[in-house]
Amino acid sequence: MSDTVIRNGRIIDPANGIDTLADLWIDDGKVAGIGQFTGDATHEIDATGQIVCPGLIDMHVHLREPGQEWKEDIESGSHAAIAGGITTFCCMPNTKPRLDHAGVLLQVIQRVREVGLCNIHPIAAVTMNLEGTQLTEMRELSRLGAVAFSDDGLPIWHAGIMRKALEYAASFDYLIIQHAEELQLTEKGCMNEGWVSTQLGVAGMPNEGEDCMIARDIMLTEKTGGRYHVAHISTAGAVDLVRAAQKRGARVSAEAAPHHFAMTEEALLGYNVDAKMSPPLRTEADRQAVIEGLRDGTITIIATDHAPHHEDDKRCGLSCAAFGIVGMETMLPVALELVHQHGLPLADVIAKMTCNPATLLGLDAGTLTIGSNADLCIFDSEQTWGLDKNSLFSKSRNTPWHGQTMTGRVTHTLKNGRTVFAHGVIHD
Amino acid sequence: MKLQHLFGIAQLNKEQIHYLINMGDAFIELSKRPIKKAPTLRGKTIINLFFENSTRTRTSFEIAGKRLSADVINISASTSATSKGETLLDTAQTLAAMQPHVLVIRHSLAGTCEFLAEHLRETAIVNAGDGAHEHPTQILTDLLTLKHSIGDVAGKTMTIVGDISHSRVARSHLLAAKILGYHVRVVAPKTLLPSKVENYGCEVFHDFDAAIAGSDILYMLRVQTERLTSNCCFPSIREYHEAYGLNKKRLARANADCVVMHPGPMNRGVEIASDIADGAHSRILNQVEHGVAVRMAVLTAMCDLRFNAHDLPSNPDKRGTL
Fold this sequence. Notes:
Helix content of chain B: 25-40%
CATH topology of the largest domain in chain A: TIM Barrel
Distance between the termini of chain B: 18 Å
CATH superfamily of the largest domain in chain A: Metal-dependent hydrolases
Strand order of the largest sheet of chain B: 7-6-5-8-9
Oligomer: heterodimer
Number of domains of chain B: 2
Shape of chain B: globular
Number of strands of chain A: 19
Distance between the termini of chain A: 24 Å
CATH architecture of the largest domain in chain B: 3-Layer(aba) Sandwich
Order of helices and strands of chain B: HEHEHEHEHEHEEHEHHHEHH
Helix content of chain A: 25-40%
Largest interface: A-B, 19 and 22 residues
């Protein structure tokens, strides 16, 4: 007698090269078998016409706990995640206080255990208070559960500190994640610099604001032998820089956010504050370059940069609205545009949201290997549905996809074999 | 013509622009009467809400409203609730709750009017300048002045000199030029030009002397002296005047009947030499005079009052149509 059987789904497990129509059954919260199920099971899920894949991983999420719980907290963020088919995600350290010392990191880990709906792995700060001057105690933070280091939201701007951070991290094989933004070039900017910013009469953020810092960081990475990951890559130039560095054998990786391969700066016309984020939406040429980077494997990861903000922080006009959009509940359907519109293989796109980030961060997740935790995402890749921002599970409503038709919908999310989300309802 | 809001030139078509200019033209006479008052906007309430310093635009709107018998209230940011931490939206909603017909807004943030209009559904909003975005009443004013000075602007060349990057006046002219068929040259160093400005269909010059020949209109922008040097957009005011200041020698190279314009306030000896500002080619004070007339037209259109030619004496001197 098995606990659960998922019948007749198309099972895609990129880590093991599996893409097959079969049943998948679960015992004691673990994947027990893939094939023709002949026994009995307590629970049954009919996945006919559906895709069954490992629970998705989003390695770039801003939970606002501690400090700004009215925007998002660990529980609401977990709800948003499982509604999006995500069972594992990483939270960024720009909370208040920052995830820059053991005490606050332990507090977050404790809260994650209490909520218990997802695996949430903290990414700790590189520098104290994200100020870019003094390194955090990376060894202790790593021992307690930090899976990587970043000052995300802000760049590690100081070249000397970046060199030291890469050297120190390289000594212990830690990963440094960079929000690449040369602040002197993006000062006062609220969107991409170009024809749209000129028409709107607002200050722009040029591509070079991102490219300059990535070029610098790649040189430092190659010098130090460190491991460097570009968060939310958005420009054609940056994709080229990463591709060239990888060809030389540098340990450089990159993630792309769904909005950067699905939208352009044109979305800002009319002063749309829900299309304001950093790095900003770029031009069509940049968007195509990001898609090409995803296609050729330069960009191995899709991550949302889920950044919840309260309406009060957005409802003040484009120039002073907060940067960022929520993304976890729309990650899968937007990522599926790569399959439906740009012809990327479905298994490759799923890999970018499962085994690839797991491998980069050394997480025990993202596969359906027999005996692994039964974290699953079941979705209908063709189902269309209208996104209503008021129906999001996140506490925040800042999505640019409000009112739009999405293709592809998560029907079930299983965590350790338990159905935590089914047909639009959270089971916690 | 009923305008729900006036955010910018971008929303207007050729007919609407002509309509507003011609209505403004007819209003010029009102300000020359011994008793400068018409009942057109009696019973209307207009609030001028200015978050940026302004003398001429605010006064121009105030006089325009008052001469048409509207009740006009002026609020400037320094005396408003915003200094107590109230948000822009709260301030605007509070004022809107007092049921004015028109809210005239100036703010340093581009898109302020569009943003407020989303939330204030009942109140008509007029943009009196939003950041580096648009300044529609200034452009309508300039077009009225040009109607009097050179007649039809179609086919004429306007050379705009100065800080194009931060200029709402330049952007609104670039939009109007496309609609009405005049040609724009922008003149500035690259530090003062916005990205892809050529997409407006204008010619771009860095050398003022090269741009002057063939110009029918020289439009000098105000230099924000503090902004210019602190942002490293220009090394010094002295060098700015040398490179982009309008003086007699430069003016001599323009077309003989070239007119000189400036949206004010001027920095004499910086972007424009005094003898030019006060000289025969200058239309700077005409712009100010026509500003009142055009704003009367705009406020009238906002209040949905059909302009009736019988209400006012006919324009005695029709110097061509735009």
